[in-house]
Amino acid sequence: MTRIPKTFQGSPANAGEPWIGYIRVSTYYEDKISPDIQRTAIQAWADRNGKRIVEWIEDLDISGRTFKRKVMLGIKATEEGRVRGIAVWRYSRFGRSRHGNAVNLAKLEGVGGRLESATEAVDTRTAFGRLQMGLAFKFAEFESDRIGEQWEETREHRRAHGLPSTGGKRWGYVWNRRHMDDDGLIHPESYEPDRELDLLVLDLYERVADGQALYSLTQWLGRKGYVGTRGNPWTQTALTRYLDSGFPAGFLRYHPTECECPPNDPESNMPRSAKCSNRIWTPGAQELIVKEDVWEEYERRRKIAKSKPATNRAAAYPNSGQLRCARCGGSGTFAGGSTYGAGGVLIQKQGYQARCGERKDKGTCDGFYILRSVIEATVLKRLEEWQREIEAEVARSKATRKPKEKDARSVMAPEDRLAAERKRLKKRLTDIAAEMDQQTSLVSRKIIPEESYRRERDRLMREQTAVTEQLTALETPEGQQVERADYLPVIRGLVARWEVTTVETRRALLRTLLKGVWIYPKTVGDDGEEIPAYAVPVPAWEPTAPELIGRRAAA
Predict the structure, then answer these.
(1) Among residues of the chain, what percentage have pLDDT more than 90?
(2) 3-state DSSP assignment of residue 21
(3) DSSP for residue 55
(4) Which residues of 359-389 are buried (b: 16+ CB within 10 A; e: fewer)?
(5) By three-state DSSP, how is residue 336 classified?
(6) Which of 138, 148, 198, 214 is the residue whose CA sits 20 to 30 A from 318?
(7) 55, 82 contact by CB (below 8 A)
(8) What are the φ/ψ torsions at residue 268 (nearest 5 degrees)?
(9) What is the pLDDT of residue 470?
(10) Is the pLDDT confidence value at 496 over 50?
(11) What are the structural domains of the chain?
């Protein structure tokens, strides 16, 4: 029987040090290396060196200039000691950012981890090997800068010919790519109005110029089934960005390269232009859909709208950010409303009711409308019910619980430390609640002046908010069951002081207790009776969210 020499035998599946194989495919065409080629080379390196690839991490079509990538999961795994290091096809796959490479390589090596290249034979444990790796990173950075300069030249060339710098489809236009016909004649890239959409685009600009709100136009587009160039329903943000671009009015808008705004953040995918309002407008080569007078009136209307101060920047209501539409699962928002007071006087009320955001922004859901007072009353009632239920459970548990023997020699595991910290924070919340009760008692008996009471109450509320935020930040480890009794101190304190607790504190506490508040729309029952809209608070310990009932109401 012929025996295969050990040199040519692969490593057993469970042999060797555990490593992570990292694959990145660049956004730059000439730098795209197939994931299969990278995977094969990394696996071959592992087999040659007796290593074991226990996990593969892929970043496909991602720039190496940012570290907002999945490779950070590999660094985290090395920090936790689950793997020995990260193997890449070439060092340039790890990253092309000088700052990012230095910081994240230091993280990796600081915990004893290593970065190895499958195709560049470098021993990074030696001084010369580290020099070679540094040179590889420098060359990768040079390549990144060179590619960036080429892209900038390309963008300038396109703008000089009246084309948008990034190319691609534009809504309301047919994009004709540069091509050669059968006779060998080259046809340049161009944009011509889409005869099925050009009148609609003009109508949108005219409506805004006449004073119609953008959110109502977004709703109208959603109801009519119009979608953007990527096939997604319009949102108010996307529609605003498209109309403000001025492309249908014959303009190209871009951010000047020589702008003195802050440079790109190496840890972010967001370009610096996204944070800067400086723009240059130049005429484009595309045919106009929107005439000059309509565009000028549109611009005037938009300047008026931008000059108005934005409202509701901070959460104004206890359940802000927690509402969910039971039809589509989208977020709910609060809106103003009006009622009639004494003598038939119309009274405007901010945040009077809540509605579905998908209905408001896109018109793709029939949504809901419900009074804010109904939501808050339902939440408070449910909290009171949970308090009674949990207190009964705790009482029964104490009656049957057996004392545990403590082993002083045992070392506290991470999950035990987390549980201990959560227990400490909950005890502090209970103590704060007791202190607030004491202050209330003292001021009611006129033992302390009201000014001292308010000062101490505000201090305790600030501390209550801070402790609650710390408690929220302690995420429950995956697979660990959350007990309802853990939330009892928070529920007790909130229910007891619901009316006097500030909106900010109440909202922070509710975010700890609730997964969300699902809103069900008004319906008609089987008996023909109308069922008003109602709210269903879902607690944090509930494993699943309610099942959605569908975006559209039954005909």
Answers:
(1) 21
(2) strand
(3) E
(4) bbbbbbbbbbbbbbebbbebbbebbeebbee
(5) strand
(6) 214
(7) no
(8) -130, 150
(9) 72
(10) yes
(11) 6-148 (3.40.50.1390), 190-261+275-307 (3.90.1750.20)
What's the CA gap between 147 and 200, in Å, rounded?
39
Q: Rounded to whole angstroms, how far apart are CA atoms 85 and 196?
A: 56
Question: With contact defined as beta carbons under 8 Å apart, do 164 and 247 qualify?
Answer: yes
pLDDT band at 408, cuts 50/70/90? very low
> Phi first, then psi: what are they for 375, rounded to 5°?
-60, -50
- Encoded amino acid at 49, one letter: N
* Three-state SS annotation for 385-417: HHHHHHHHHHHHHHHHCCCCCCCCCCCCCHHHH
112: left (phi over 0), alpha (psi -120 to 50) or beta: left
Cα torsion for 70, 72, 76, 81, to the nearest 10°?
80
* Other CB atoms within 10 Å distance of the CB of residue 292: 10
Stretch 159-175: mean pLDDT: 88
- Using CA atoms, how far apart are residues 326 and 332, in angstroms rounded to an integer? 10
- Three-state SS letters, 449-506: CHHHHHHHHHHHHHHHHHHHHHHHHCCCCCCCCCCHHHHHHHHHHHHHCCCCCCHHHH
Looking at residue 22, its amino acid is Y
Amino acid in position 14: N
The pLDDT confidence band at residue 477, using thresholds 50, 70 and 90, is very low
The pLDDT tens digits for 330-342 are 889 888 877 777 7
Residues 6+ apart with CB under 8 A from 237: none
Three-state secondary structure of 210-257 = CCCCHHHHHHHHHHHCCECCCCCECCHHHHHHHHHHCHHHCEEEECCC
From edge to edge, which strands make up the β-sheet containing 114-117?
51-59, 17-24, 85-88, 114-117
Handedness of CA 331, 335, 340, 341 (dihedral sign): positive
Minimum mean pLDDT among 225-229, 380-384, 548-552: which range? 548-552
Fill in the amino acid letter for 132.
Answer: Q
Phi and psi at 345, nearest 5°, equal -80, 130
Q: Name the H helices within 274-316.
A: 292-307
Rounded CA separation 254/152 (Å): 12
pLDDT at residue 30, as a whole number: 47
Report which listed range, 2-11, 154-163, 406-415, 467-476, is most confident.
154-163
Amino acid at position 77, single letter = A
Length of the chain, in residues: 555
Rg from Cα positions in the chain: 31
Distance, CA of 60 to CA of 153 (rounded, Å): 25
**Residue 115 contacts residue 105 (beta carbons within 8 Å):** yes
Confidence (pTM): 0.48
